[in-house]
Amino acid sequence: MSVMWWGVIGTSVIAFALKFTGHSIPARWLSHPKVQAINLQIPIALLSALVAVQTFTSKSKLELDHRALGLGVAIVALLFRAPFPVVVISAAVTSAAVVHFL
Amino acid sequence: MSAIAPATWRDSFSVSLTVGAYGIAFGAAGVAAGFSVFQSCLLSLLTFSGASQFAIVGVIGAGGSALSGITTASLLGIRNGLYGLRMAPLLHVKGLRRVVAAQITIDESTGVALSQEERGEAAMRQGFWLTGFGVYIFWNIFTLVGALGAQAMGDPAAWGLDAAVPAAFLGLVWPRLKKNSDRILAASAALLSLALTPILPAGIPIISTAILAVIFGLRQR
């Protein structure tokens, strides 16, 4: 079985198990404020790491290329409170323009 | 079931449509990362949690192992479990209904449910179900559209469109950066993952930043 299939099945099974567990265990088990606090920080850390790795690396090497400019435009779009699809498309169009015209 | 307030309909529908539209970005990202159209659609049908889905295709697409991809995706999915904890006493459902409720327990269904608090518990339940089903339907339709679009284009990286994926992650994390400490955590996680990239296998540098989340979480009052 390919890496992709393991990824699809593994992620889906665990994602559902996590959701279902939440609906099935007594609330007091995880209501500790520290657990809640850590849970709020996890997406911030992992998503920020994903932004960095997907923008500035390629195959275990650090790289500065068209993606960085695309990300810069995405930041500007977010500063102007642009909706999500506008953010993604403006980044994609910018990086494509750099690849084709520079 | 009592009548559904127009405001609850409006909140649920607008969230469902806008969030569902992100599905285009996910479908395209899945195919760009080397997943088939079918596999990308399965992720939306079965995993049904945006950040986790982007993570698994992002990590594997960058050459990471299935295990590191699944771990990253699952760490991002923990919060759905905590949402379930909050929603269960409100919904009190059993059997198949609980299975369905669990599957549609995500940021948006929980968020709309909580935002209906002033309108009473019935409105909260309606907000949960309407938004959960609404996002599910639109997210899956748009995933298919995005995946087919990317497949028709060939390799998005060759077109130079690959900044779309980090921009999508940025769009997901941006609304969470409310306090100064959130921004410091985001910057630290970005730097740590970059520093570790040359020395650790793909995917591990991303998972490693969960340690920062624990440290920052424990320091909060």
UniProtKB/TrEMBL annotation, chain A:
Stored Pfam families: AzlD
Record's keyword terms, sorted: Membrane, Transmembrane, Transmembrane helix
Chain ranges passing through the membrane: 38-56, 68-101
InterPro entries the UniProt entry points to: Brnchd-chn_aa_trnsp_AzlD
Protein name per Swiss-Prot or TrEMBL: Unannotated protein
UniProtKB/TrEMBL annotation, chain B:
Signal peptide: none
InterPro entries linked: Brnchd-chn_aa_trnsp_permease
Entry GO CC: plasma membrane
Compartments reported by the entry: Cell membrane
Pfam families per UniProt: AzlC
Primary subcellular site in the record, as a coarse category: membrane
Residue spans crossing the bilayer: 21-48, 54-78, 128-150, 189-218
Keyword Phosphoprotein in annotation: no
UniProt entry keywords in alphabetical sequence: Cell membrane, Membrane, Transmembrane, Transmembrane helix, Transport
Membrane topology according to the record: Multi-pass membrane protein
Gene Ontology biological-process entries: L-valine transmembrane transport
Family: Belongs to the AzlC family.
Protein name: Unannotated protein
